[in-house]
Structure to design on (103 residues):
């Protein structure tokens, strides 16, 4: 089951998955890592995307579990993919996630 199916973000005051306004201001022409960094800025994990390296983890950036789920749901919407728990758990770093999501 995809993470976005397990949690209705609207119940927590977040935008609903599939709402294009979630990610429309994030350029889709940059590399996947830059887009992930922009998502992390958008949801308030960091203030500046330059603070993030490909070797960082969400835990290392002090993202709590709900923030991590919000990040994955927004990444699913932005990249047009579904990310299940096993896939998410297989990525050690944000760089690993970016490699998977790169076209």
């Amino acid at each position: 089951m995809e993470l976005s199916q397990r949690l209705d973000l609207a119940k927590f005051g977040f935008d609903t998955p599939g709402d294009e306004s979630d990610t429309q201001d994030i350029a889709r022409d940059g590399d996947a890592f830059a887009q992930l960094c922009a998502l992390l800025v958008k949801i308030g994990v960091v203030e500046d995307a330059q603070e993030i390296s490909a070797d960082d983890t969400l835990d290392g950036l002090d993202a709590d579990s709900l923030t991590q789920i919000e990040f994955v749901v927004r990444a699913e919407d932005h990249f047009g993919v579904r990310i299940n728990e096993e896939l998410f758990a297989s990525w050690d770093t944000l760089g690993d996630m970016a490699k998977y999501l790169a076209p």
Notes: The chain has one domain: 27-101. Confidence is low (pLDDT under 50) at residues 16-21. The helical segments are 3-6, 32-42, 65-79, 85-90, 94-101.
